[in-house]
Design the sequence.
């Protein structure tokens, strides 16, 4: 949607009247108004993929749920961000994340800094009803400074997007489908021998879990710095 | 240990509840009927399996205490391999003197380490590694008053 055609719209979120521009998403408008909608794959400054589905919200008048990060606001929308139904779905989504790979919060570098762990607490997930899969997954520590541990990856593709859109290196991508999918560097080569990686570390800073981390970090030591991202995104926007 | 971190609050609990069984008391058999059982650790072998089924049968409210009981946590890291591969690794590959896999006197390993609620019905979950004393105290206080605790403000997976 071009900037010229944007209009001001009014809508309701959780019964509150809010104003917004028509080129904003439900998630953006909610955040501007201090209304919390849980999300994992979305991060300010990067494109939207809508893959994690955690930000699903109800729109009154339709029965289907929409993802707040990838849906533009419309005039007269009446949005519900928290309900029993949404809570059930969100807990199930989180359960699937936890069961899909080997997430061991207690011994993870990102313990206490992890968005998956944080969302589980915020959404009241006290245990996982889905059977754990316990897949055998590789850890690539060939890079001089960073490690990718696929056991903790939730395939949010933040690393893929930041590398492509901000660093413009496109070292990361996704290979395989469904449960076999993995993030890869270059053409599925060891990260350490990647010719495109600039070692900027942006992928490490945006990772929501402990999948990407700096070498030398022990349990609970991996905190992230992300404040650079909206700024760099704005700079890119201006220069392009 | 985290339970002992309740410190003087243990006395408040003791005024309302009596401790009838634990791995450290003299009595060896689980009592006929218990109002509340806290269970920690994952279900990893046949002994655990039989024990937790017996506990469930004789317990009104069963509480999974800590990440090992709730998620399998570190013990479940062996689930990426077969039980035989784990035994081989522990008792053959890394042993130089008389390598042998113990078959008698030790419980048979399950193929997979399981969270408690995959084996029996669990009523309340107190996550954390370990769960902080405040979470345990809040949970016990609520349960003793007949309420179901919402622990999300007190604890989570990990620490």
Sequence:
């Amino acid at each position: 949607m071009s900037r010229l055609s944007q209009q001001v719209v009014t809508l309701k979120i959780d019964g509150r009247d809010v104003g917004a521009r028509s080129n904003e998403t439900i998630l953006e408008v909610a955040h501007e108004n201090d209304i919390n909608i849980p999300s994992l794959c979305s991060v300010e400054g990067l494109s939207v993929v809508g893959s994690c589905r955690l930000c699903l919200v109800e729109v009154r008048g339709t029965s289907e749920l929409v993802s707040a990060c990838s849906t533009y606001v419309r005039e007269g929308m009446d949005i519900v961000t928290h309900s029993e139904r949404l809570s059930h779905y969100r807990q199930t989504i989180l359960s699937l994340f936890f069961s899909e790979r080997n997430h061991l919060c207690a011994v993870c570098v990102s313990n206490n800094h992890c968005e998956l762990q944080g969302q589980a607490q915020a959404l009241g997930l006290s245990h996982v009803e889905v059977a754990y899969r316990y897949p055998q997954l590789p850890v690539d520590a060939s890079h001089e400074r960073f490690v990718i541990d696929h056991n903790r990856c939730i395939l949010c593709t933040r690393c893929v997007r930041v590398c492509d859109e901000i660093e413009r290196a496109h070292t990361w991508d996704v290979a395989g489908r469904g449960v076999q999918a993995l993030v890869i560097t270059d053409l599925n080569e060891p990260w350490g021998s990647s010719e495109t990686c600039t070692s900027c570390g942006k992928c490490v800073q945006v990772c929501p879990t402990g999948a990407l981390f700096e070498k030398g970090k022990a349990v609970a030591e991996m905190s992230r710095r992300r404040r650079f991202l909206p700024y760099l995104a704005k700079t890119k926007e201006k220069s392009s | 240990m985290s339970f002992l971190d309740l410190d003087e609050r243990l006395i408040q609990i003791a005024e309302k509840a009596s401790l009838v069984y634990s791995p450290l008391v003299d009595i060896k058999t689980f009592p006929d009927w218990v109002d509340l059982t806290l269970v920690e650790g994952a279900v990893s072998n046949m002994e655990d399996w039989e024990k937790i089924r017996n506990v469930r049968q004789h317990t009104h409210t069963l509480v999974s205490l800590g990440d090992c009981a709730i998620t399998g946590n570190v013990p479940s890291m062996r689930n990426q391999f077969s039980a035989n591969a784990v035994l081989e690794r522990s008792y053959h590959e890394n042993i130089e003197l008389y390598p042998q896999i113990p078959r008698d006197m030790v419980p048979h390993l399950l193929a997979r380490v399981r969270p408690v609620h995959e084996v029996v019905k669990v009523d309340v979950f107190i996550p954390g590694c370990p769960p902080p004393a405040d979470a345990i105290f809040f949970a016990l206080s609520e349960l003793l008053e007949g309420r179901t605790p919402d622990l999300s403000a007190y604890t989570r997976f990990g620490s």
